[in-house]
Amino acid sequence: MSTQTLLVEIGTEELPPKSLSKLASAFADSVQAGLDKAELSYTAVNWLASPRRLAVKVEALAPAQADKVVEKRGPSLKAAFDADGNATKAAEGWARGNGITVAQAERLETDKGAWLLHKAEVKGKEVDALIPDIVVDALGKLPIPKPMRWGSSDASFIRPVHTITLLYGDQLIDATILGIQSNRILQGHRFHGAATVTLEHVDDYEAVLEEQGFVIADFQRRKAMIKSQVEAVAAQEGGVADIDDALLDEVTGLVEWPVTLVGSFEDKFLEVPAEALIYTMKDNQKYFPVLTTEGELLNRFIFVSNIASKQPEAVIEGNEKVVRPRLADAEFFYKTDLKKSLESRLDSLSTVLFQKQLGTLKEKSERIASLSGAIAQQINADSSLATRAGLLSKTDLMSEMVMEFPDVQGVMGMYYARHDKEDEAVAIALNEQYMPRYAGDSLPTGDIGCAVAIADKLDTLVGIFGIGQSPKGDKDPFALRRAALGLLRIIVDKALPLDIIELAEIAKAQFGDKLTNDNVVNDVFEFVLGRFRAWYQDQGYSVDIIQAVLARKPSRPADFDARIKAVAAFRSLPQAAALAAANKRVGNILAKQEAPVAETIDVTLLIEEQEKALANSVAHQQQQLAPLFANNDYQTALQQLASLQPDVDAFFDSVMVMADDLPVRGNRLALLNQLRQMFLQVADISLLQS
């Protein structure tokens, strides 16, 4: 069969720019799923998107489903014929339903008997009969939180729809979707070129839109163009553009014909902390700030216009006029905030609830202060500085700047603390308390910052779990999963000697009688352990390695990490599989014992040479391993334990553990218990898969 490319395009009013790529990708995925379900062959499914269109192209799509033979089983021969060999009503009804006579039916022989059988040839449906339903189904599955209706139509979509194009090669597929009849008409740019263009063949889609309609339909190509243009303009200005992917995606979703320009603002605004200026340029104006190679903000901004103006200077001037009041606001808020110290804002925190049952932000700040001081002591940091940073940690939330620009919380606290002549470590900690803000974000650089960041996250975890509001499904309003992962990242990456259970107990005590969940410490600990599983899987560790360590429930994250790496190294050793199997066998034997197993071995009860050899090796290893375990050198410990493999194998090959002589049996069980306990000081390696 000759294949063609299929185009599906939905022409709309301007789509939400932040979710444009997500919508287009989801649309393509659903169309692809529909094609697979319909058993239509193709080579590739690609999506395209611009502010006023969602499009999917299916390469080398077969014109129809393949013909196939469907076997339809009828009644068993016993039920199909009576004693005289005449067809029963059941057989005749089945045959009639298949358009044949009973005599025309074939026989299906199975181990369970014989049955009537009809092999029906089913002719595959053609593309034009299948695609409309696939598209309708795909549109219905798009992640649209609030669909809208327009005009007098009952149809609803994320934005009003103006055109529907279903084209297979040069063939228009007839359909009515969302109340719109399919046609060859595509929307051009709002201000350039043709308002609408006619598409004769799918292969011309992008070229026709670009040449006649001034539209770059390929989202990824448009995104690359914008990035390249922004970088080039920044270089011309002697700087580097501050480009993050989320903003780049959003700007790509705003323009169909990108034209990149640069504007400027007064130098006086550079007296305001750069983060606030950058935030308002990016978030409010969708501009790309320009930095020096050293990271200092320049009084330049780059923006992407959707028109190629004959007077670009007028467009630049207009954008400069728009951004100036924003920057002036930031300047005003900053200067106003400097009139009050952070410490003077402490009392105002009493007017803001953190959570109804857990009290105000001031109470939270006091808890963070106390917990930060305790953590600082454990990591040999300055407890008084950590306490001070914890106490001031939320004060910048009451500043004018943060109230207007919430994303600069923390960073403004750092600037205000410096203005107040607070210790530099305290100032830095006020910014670092929220780190890491997202996956892959930077961690606190200093010990004081680490202490406050850990305290803040732990206070939230213990508080929310303490009132029974743990995350349910995908609902996590207090971002507890992110808090737990951030907690782990800081402790592990900084190799801090902190114990989650101990810290949770301290945090719990600070809430007084506010908490209602008596099991909160264990609940928080189990929740944190659960984050370990996902974290290490993302790093490429296999589930059985993670399970082996989780079975021991280490409560110190840095210790947990050391065990994971040790078990991963052990698993690569040639002795690992045999020792894992032996540990599993030992575990099963010990689990069946009703009476307690002795902790010591009686050497006078050792009979067989193989058990004597294993006992000697175990005793020798216990002495050798003690300092290794004391230093958490699990990797070396497991490497040494691997040397036990020959003695363990010989023991199980030659020694009957469950001997008739009860003292001898008990002594052998004690030996195996000592062997097992040495491995369990690292992990339960019996859970490792071969």
Word description of this protein:
This protein is α+β, with helices and mostly antiparallel strands. Helix content is about 50%, strand content about 15%. The strands form 7 sheets. It has a 5-stranded antiparallel beta sheet with strand order 2-3-1-9-10, with helices on one face. Strands 15-17-18-16 form a 4-stranded antiparallel beta sheet, sandwiched between helices. It is flat, with a radius of gyration of 35 Å.
Keywords for this entry:
20 strands; 48% helix; flat; alpha+beta; 25 helices; five-stranded antiparallel beta sheet; 690 residues; four-stranded antiparallel beta sheet
What's the total helix number?
Answer: 25
Strand line-up of the largest beta sheet: 2-3-1-9-10
Radius of gyration: 35 Å
Give the class from helix and strand content and strand pairing.
alpha+beta
Span between termini: 48 Å
Percentage of residues in strands: 5-15%
* Helix share bin: 40-55%
Give a count of the beta strands, DSSP E runs of length 2 or more. 20
3D shape: flat
List the uncertain runs: none
Record the SSE blueprint.
Blueprint: E1 4-12, H1 20-37, E2 44-50, E3 53-61, E4 68-76, H2 77-80, H3 89-97, E5 106-110, E6 113-122, H4 127-140, E7 148-149, E8 156-157, E9 161-168, E10 171-172, E11 176-177, E12 180-181, E13 185-187, E14 196-198, H5 205-213, H6 219-236, E15 240-241, H7 245-252, E16 259-264, H8 274-284, E17 288-291, E18 297-305, H9 312-337, E19 353-355, E20 359-360, H10 361-378, H11 383-392, H12 400-404, H13 411-419, H14 424-432, H15 447-466, H16 480-493, H17 500-510, H18 520-538, H19 543-550, H20 557-571, H21 576-591, H22 609-630, H23 634-641, H24 645-654, H25 662-680
Helix pairs in contact: 1-4, 6-7, 8-9, 10-11, 10-15, 10-17, 11-14, 11-15, 13-14, 14-15, 15-16, 15-17, 15-18, 16-18, 16-20, 17-18, 18-19, 19-20, 20-23, 21-24, 21-25, 22-23, 22-24, 22-25
